[in-house]
From TrEMBL, chain A:
It comes from Asanoa hainanensis. The keyword Isomerase does not apply. Transmembrane segments: none annotated. This is Xanthine dehydrogenase YagS FAD-binding subunit. The keyword tRNA-binding does not apply. Keywords: Oxidoreductase. It comes from the Bacteria.
TrEMBL record, chain B:
This is Xanthine dehydrogenase YagT iron-sulfur-binding subunit. Pathway: Alkaloid degradation; nicotine degradation. PROSITE patterns: 2FE2S_FER_1, 2FE2S_FER_2. Pfam families: Fer2 (PF00111), Fer2_2 (PF01799).
Length: 327, 162
């Protein structure tokens, strides 16, 4: 038996109020992360779930060259959207390579952005040393069995990975997150939404308590651009990325004129490879350029013995996806 | 719609609609759909494997779409149409997928089988049984530790082609 309460929010206003009034209340959407952490692993301890699952925050609308995705749209629904299929194919690929169909029918886009790390030490309440759960308690992963952990944005306080596939093309495309609370709305670029651990691994993003993700805006690929998402993993399907890369590129007369690159499986936050993009734009679309971009993307990694292999694997993942989208 | 609770209560009143029948139940607020089906409604065909959304043994349909019932609160399903393995036979005859699973010996211990069948029912509706590779990919949320996978794929393919 658990003493966590449950209330279904009748409308958006009451949902905001029900969470804002109680510092330990949480929004409940698809539940695939929240229920797992609260009821099964018991590493988070909400006072109550405020179920927002039936609020009218569902569906995809197109506004010129942007897509506006309501936060309760499921992963399966977004993957099936015709505009996503035609104009953001690597978003669709990333969605369908994530989780299983059952989970994609439950998991929402807002929840995907806010999913918690799969670090097994974070998810094990028997482990005392976790700076993400208890700041200052240490990091068991760094001296433990690390593999599905981060090498970029990581440091001695925390190497927990942000495991989203979807966020990789979203950061590459400069997606923006619309947030709502009693004071009104604000829009935050996804690349500025997340925080690397630093000395506060427990603070993962800029979201304030009681603030609700209502929409995600995604610019569409420019005409002529090609995109692709490559996910490298330990089994063929239904597994988190060991490394992944999402690339969108425009090539004219053999020269790269526009490039976007996001990385998964390597960052404490969904990783935008800005330096690699600088290498790519203006350069010839060839192996030498791709390798130079990969070297620029994985600079100064923080590795432990279990994650050192990711340095080269991530570079090869980048080279391969760049080769694919330019061939 | 029955209101699925009051703010401070840890008990909820939920109207579960399962296989065409309506069950009003009073539950702990954090009771999963899986536990409600098995322990309160005594519909034990839905199995508890990992209980963490990783194995697919607890797959059911909610409003026609496959979900894992272990990571779903019963309260979230208030008023939704749930279909379990007990609800897929027609006029007392097993579902064609159930017959195909038997014909192809698509199980050994049988523990994952009801989840496999429910997932396959949805897979066919989704139109994702076009090839063996597609079946494997879109059935990957259902694990079988006896590794009856080749026979599971064969059973699904047979029904998809019939």
């Amino acid at each position: 038996m658990s003493d966590i309460g449950y209330v279904r929010a009748a409308d958006q206003g009451s949902a905001l109020a029900l969470v804002a009034e109680d510092p330990d209340a949480v929004f409940l959407a698809g539940g695939t992360t929240e229920l797992d952490l609260a009821l099964k692993d018991q590493v988070v301890h909400p006072s109550r779930f405020v179920d927002i699952g039936r609020l009218p925050l569902r569906g995809v609308t197109r506004d010129g060259d942007r897509l506006r995705v309501a936060a309760l749209t499921t992963m399966e629904e977004l993957a099936a959207d015709p505009t996503v299929r035609d104009r953001l194919p690597f978003v669709r690929e990333a969605l369908l390579l994530g989780a299983s169909t059952q989970l994609r029918n439950m998991a929402t886009i807002g929840g995907n952005l806010l999913q918690r790390t799969r670090c097994r030490y974070f998810r094990d309440p028997e482990v005392g040393a976790c700076n993400k759960r208890e700041p200052g308690s240490g990091c068991a992963a760094i001296k433990g069995v690390a593999r599905m952990h981060a090498i970029l944005g990581a440091g001695p306080t925390c190497i927990a990975l942000h495991a989203s596939d979807l966020c990789v093309p979203l950061v590459a495309m400069d997606a923006e997150v619309e947030l709502l609370d009693a004071d009104g709305t604000r829009t935050v670029p996804l690349t500025q939404f997340y925080r690397t651990p630093g000395d506060r691994p427990d603070v993962e993003n800029v979201l304030r308590h009681g603030e609700l993700v209502t929409h995600v805006q995604v610019p569409l690929l420019p005409a002529g651009a090609r995109s692709g998402y490559l996910k490298v993993r330990d089994r063929t399907s239904y597994e988190f990325a060991t490394t992944s890369a999402g690339a969108a590129i425009t090539v004219e007369d053999g020269t790269i004129t526009w490039a976007r690159l996001g990385l998964g499986g390597v960052g404490t936050v969904p990783w935008r490879a800005w330096e690699a993009e600088s290498v790519l734009v203006g350069a010839p679309a060839n192996e030498r350029t791709f390798r130079a971009a990969a070297e620029a993307a994985i600079r100064d990694p923080f590795t432990v013995p279990g994650t050192a292999f990711k340095v080269e694997l991530a570079k090869r993942t980048i080279v391969r996806i760049l080769r694919t989208v330019t061939s | 719609m029955s209101s699925a609770t009051t703010a401070r209560s840890t008990q909820v009143t939920v109207e579960l609609r399962v296989n065409g029948r309506t069950y009003p139940v009073r539950l702990d607020s954090t009771t999963t759909l899986l536990d409600a089906l098995r322990d309160d409604l005594h519909l034990t065909g839905t199995k508890k494997g990992c209980d963490q959304g990783a194995c697919g043994a607890c797959t059911v349909l909610r409003d026609g779409k496959r979900i894992v019932s272990c990571l779903t609160l019963a309260a979230q399903c208030d008023g939704s149409e749930i279909t379990t393995i007990e609800g897929i036979s027609e006029d007392g005859h097993p579902h064609p997928l159930q017959e195909a699973f038997v014909r192809h010996d698509a199980l050994q211990c049988g523990y994952c089988t009801t989840g496999q069948v429910m997932s396959a029912v949805a897979l066919l509706r989704e139109g994702r049984a076009g090839s063996d590779d597609e079946i494997r990919e879109f059935m990957s949320g259902n694990l079988c530790r006896c590794a009856a996978y080749p026979n599971i794929v064969a059973a699904i393919r047979e029904v998809a082609e019939s």
